[in-house]
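WARN no homologs supplied; continuing
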Amino acid sequence: MYRHGAYDEFLAAELRSSKEYACGFLLTLMEGDEGLDPVVALKHTIKRYGIKEFSEFSEIPEKSISRMLSSESIPKIETLDKYFAPFGLKVKINLE
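OK structure emitted
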């Protein structure tokens, strides 16, 4: 279902207005059995945030962000840490 552009603008403004809101949005995308994979949720959040704005927020170059968004491969843990850090999150691997 396509959402109206006003919704996208509202969501982008909300994500940019509060680090806590952006973190909550990202975590909500990953919740439950039907939640998104962390990398997919991160890409979705960055796209909604805006590449230029996320670059300014995270201090990651726009070119690097665009490359990560278009890549089919799974980024290294160190790379994921750089992208999750602006949201106050850290990547951990838990094998059981």
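The helical segments are 5-17, 19-29, 38-49, 51-58, 62-70, 77-84.
OK
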